[in-house]
Structure formats: structure tokens, C-alpha cells
Amino acid sequence: MRKKSETRRQAILATAAQAFHDKGFDATSMSEVAARLGGSKATLYNYFDSKETLFVTVMLEKARAHVMPVMDAFSSSPDIDAAVRRFALDYLRLVLKPEILVMKRMCLAQAERYGFGQRIYEEAIKPAWGAIAQRLQAAMDEGKLHRGDTWVAAMHLKGLCEAGLIDQCLNGCRGLPTDDEITETAKAGAEAFLRAYRP
Length: 199
Hints:
- By secondary structure, the chain is an all-alpha fold.
- It has ten helices and no strands.
- Helix 4 packs parallel to helix 7 and helix 5 packs antiparallel against helix 10.
């Protein structure tokens, strides 16, 4: 067996991410990724035992690279009002990027069929929103927000941020929003959350 290389692994993930983006999950094969990479399927299987594992790894890497910095910025902000407002805008700008929308559509469409939805939820979605819940807990302990179930509060924040634009874009009901539209949606969501949770 050839020695694994992190550089090679990252190249595989980048190539696979582009292939999934261009052709979708079903139409992308390990042969397709290997051809784009300029290697063999044997090389791919040395790193990833199936297309499903490769796809899940692509999703988890994207989450770590793009989602976690947004969550970390929220968690480390000392002012909860400013943190909520900044988070709403950063989060919406992130999830409304074309490449993120494409991957999210694929994940939603294939998660149950191929059984990888649970892993993505447990390893990416749950920890990310768990970090948000911890910061909300700190704000509640400081008396800046009224007490309640912090996971529910985090889901309220998520829902208020996503109201409108994300559902429309995920369902192909409209084109990509302008930055002004994103800003207005984020502002409305943040203010609704703060009105609901201020003491």
C-alpha cells in the first residue's frame, strides 16, 4: 500500500468537491474524481473506501473551514447584542454562497438514502450549534438574556436568520439575493431574536 499524504488527501477532497458541485452526487463517480485528479481509482480507495465516505468528508471539511470560524467569532464576542447581529449577517452570507447552497441541496437530497445524514449532523451541525448554545448560556448567566433552554434558543436564532431567503434559494424559487437583501434579512432576524430573549 502506498504511503498516504495529507497533501494528496487535500487534493482529492478539492477535486471531489468540484466534481460534486459540477455534476451532483449521483452523476459523480470515483472514476470521475480519479480522472480529474489524474490518478487511479486505487489511489482514491487508499484514502476513502467509498464515494459516500468521500462526500461526507468533503462536507465535514467545508464545515470546519467555513462554518466553524463564524461560530467561533460568535462564541468569543463579549457583547451578546453585537455578537447576535454580526453572527446573523456572517451566517447568512456564508450559507447563501452558491457552492454552499449546492452542497446543502445534495446533502438534503441524499442524506437518508445513503445514510450519511446522521454523521454530518453529529460531527458538524450539532457541535457548531452547540457552541452557539454555550455562548447563549453565558449570556443568560450574566443576565443579558432571559433564561431558557439554550439549544432551543440556538435553534430560534437559526430559524430567525434563515427565515425567507434561505428557503427560497434552496428551493430554487429565486436567484441569489443581493448583499442589501442579506443585510436586511440578517438585521430583522437578529432584532427579532434579541427582542424575544432580552430580560
